Amino acid sequence: MEFARRSRYDGVIATQGPLILARSFSIRIEAMRRLVLALGLLLSAQAAEADATRGLPVDLELVLALDASASMDAEERAIERAGFAAAFRDPAVLRAIRSGPLGRIGVACFAWGGDTEQRVLVAWTLIDGPAAAAAVASAIDGARIVRMRRGTAFGGALRFAGALLAASPFEGRRAVVNITSDGIQNVGSALAPARAGLIEAGVTINGMPILDGLGTAGSAGRQAWNATLLGFFEGSVIGGPAAFIEPAGGAEDLVAAVRRKLLREIGEPALVAEGPGRWSRR
Fold first, then answer.
1. pLDDT at residue 174 greater than cutoff 50
2. What's the rounded Cα separation, in Å, for the pair 45 and 41?
């Protein structure tokens, strides 16, 4: 038999329920208003910062493309991230940045995997001293890079890097894409057109192949894979003025390799002429 259980609070709810609901709704509206206001202030501050740097000449516009594809496990992704973070805290890298004609560079960083799998880790940021470099290092260090499981698409990564460069607020004397991977193109749209478009615009594409990829068993297998990986980077990835590869001898060498690579990229190549506008933004 069904019956209605009465509570000593029924009368209170009946008389004061609408008032309680109204107060609750009012509190939520106020919380939302404060959140919108805080977000508006944050966006205004970011817009003001972007306006302050828009068109600012820099020695280098540097895009870092970090491999987060399925072939990179969690430990390798963490080491990759730590390598770039450590490099921006390195006094030698800071000296290289400050020794340029303008003493500042612009940096953006993203993770990539499949053809449409890209995630910005660090939006365009000016590095003009230790504090700014440390902020970039902390942002890279603290970024959560989830494994992207739709293959390794260099073409998609280079197209995304080109879009980042086109949207850069800076005016660089040089532009460099620094792409890291332990694999070769195995999915996605063609790599060659994306590469050619960047090279035609005067952008340098440098590569850092991470050797010993795919866990191939045996010394002969590793050597064969490493040769394939190096050949792919040299023949199909890098290009443009003073392009080079900086191989990392496995995850254990990644931190040192990143430092070597950034020092070489930030340093002024002999063949780059003086003056701004050395590459064509499209």
1. yes
2. 6
CA 71 to CA 281: how far, in whole Å?
Answer: 33
- Could you tell me which of 211, 212, 200 has the C-alpha nearest to residue 158? 200
Strands (DSSP E) along the chain, which ranges? Answer: 56-58, 60-67, 105-112, 118-127, 170-172, 175-181, 204-209
Stated as kind and residue range, the H or E segment containing 19 is helix 10-53
Cα 192–chain centre separation: 22
Q: What average pLDDT does the structure give for the chain?
A: 80
C-alpha 162/C-alpha 120 separation (Å) is 13
Q: What is the pLDDT of residue 223?
A: 84
Looking at the domain 56-266, which fold is it?
Rossmann fold (3.40.50)
Global pTM reads 0.77
Question: Confidence class of residue 21 from pLDDT cuts 50, 70 and 90?
Answer: very low
Residue ranges of the domains in the chain?
8-53, 56-266
Yes or no: say if 63 and 177 are a contact pair by the CB < 8 Å rule: yes
Q: Which secondary-structure segment (H or E) carries 14?
A: helix 10-53
Which phi and psi (to 5°) does residue 73 adopt? -80, 180
In the chain, the amino acid numbered 184 is I
